[in-house]
Amino acid sequence: MGKGGDGGKKVAAKKKEILIDGKMYDVTGFRHPGGSVINFMTKGGDATDTYVEFHGHSKSADKYLKNLPTRDASGDELKEMQGERYASLSISYQKLRAELKEKGHFEPSYVHVVYRLAEIFIMHAVGLYLLLNSSSTMGFAAGLAILGVVCGRCGWLMHEAGHYSYTKIPALDRFLQIFLYGVGCGMSAGWWRSQHNRHHAAPQKLQHDVDLETMPLVSFNHAISKKVKNPILKMWLKFQGVLFFPVVCTLVSLGWQFFLHPRYMQRTGKYMEMFSLVIRYVGFFGWVTQGWTWGQAWALYVAYVAIGGSYIFTNFALSHTHLPVVGEDQHVHWVEYAVNHTTNITPHPCTNWWMSYLNYQIEHHLFPSMPQYHMPKVGPIVRKWCKENGLNYDERDYFACAYDTLKNLHDVGNQAGSEATKKTA
Question: Could you tell me if residue 106 is left (phi over 0), alpha (psi between -120 and 50 degrees) or otherwise beta?
């Protein structure tokens, strides 16, 4: 409720409802802990599948839900919000999910948990040893490269913990995410959760998917770049295909580490995350580069961030950025978002390791709460299911997809640059 400007009359807030399991829940005055992502579900469609994937593990979420005003959805509402195609997809998806759960594909493996953490610590130990003890340039460079890659791999692992699919113990997963992302990458787990869940709710949807809101450094779609008015920025975009690796990736990483994420931590009181940054920077500047000049220390740090940022951001870009977008007012089914607006990279033991199983993006978007190491087993099942339901299972070779991604960056940037040239002519 609030007061309007017309004689102080009270104006009722527009009612917001979401459809979950045949019931309409009034979320008008509800403050969602995950932020504005809940508003995406009030604009049409059935939120049941989304709710199950993101909150199926949470008893507190069920308590929140039960305390909201609710009513049974009418037949006309169900018909309007679901439709025949929508309803059949939901039924088929829920059946598939139940079959995969029965086979144990949503259960964690603690052998895998220990292996992934051990890998992080061993790679750090080897990288630091080579960096600090090598007498040759090649050994020093190898140490730096290993540290850069493991920085990125901390990002992969915190991603799994952030979905609570790593140990499947939410409190432990959240602690591990804070530690891995803070110490390993210099970034905020809380910021990531708030942004990344919005991405999963509506991938490739304008004004909804934060992964599309990448200006001013890069634009993956002309719907974004056409809003740019500054001719200098348009000219920057013209060369973004060439600059993306490693210049843009490095600038994004540094901007997140030293501005965006610390600001978020300060505003939201994320003191444990702040402490993880203290560990990171004291370790790097107080121990690793002890005895170095500040110039030398910062040059090493930027090189380290450039490797880590380029590794993880380039691989993430392969999954969605070259694909068509969904209009701001258009609504598609959870399954269609996950499948039709996501790309898989052809599975191979090397690719699976290099991308930490996130080359199975379709499976990950369908089942974000599933431990990622299950994806190779689930992939063939999902591929068959997509074919049976008339969905496009887009799988591309790693280097072919990298080419498509960089070509899209070039095409979008070239169009923006051409517009800038025309205006200045």
Answer: alpha
| Range in 31-35, 136-140, 194-198, 379-383 the model is least confident about | 31-35
Average pLDDT in the chain: 88
Please tell me the pTM assigned to this model: 0.85
Residue 234, both tokens: 């348009």
pLDDT value of residue 5: 41
The single-letter code of the amino acid at 336 is E
Domain limits, the chain: 2-81, 125-425
Residue 424: predicted pLDDT: 52
Instruction: Report whether 374 contacts 105 (CB < 8 A).
Output: yes
* pLDDT, position 11: 40
Enter the CATH code of domain 2-81. 3.10.120.10
> What local confidence, expressed as pLDDT, does residue 343 receive?
97
Q: Which amino acid is at 130?
A: L
Residue type, 314: T
Q: Nearest 5°: CA angle at 240, between 235 and 245?
A: 150
Cα separation, 107 vs 168, in Å, equals: 8
Distance of CA 141 to the CA centre of its chain: 30
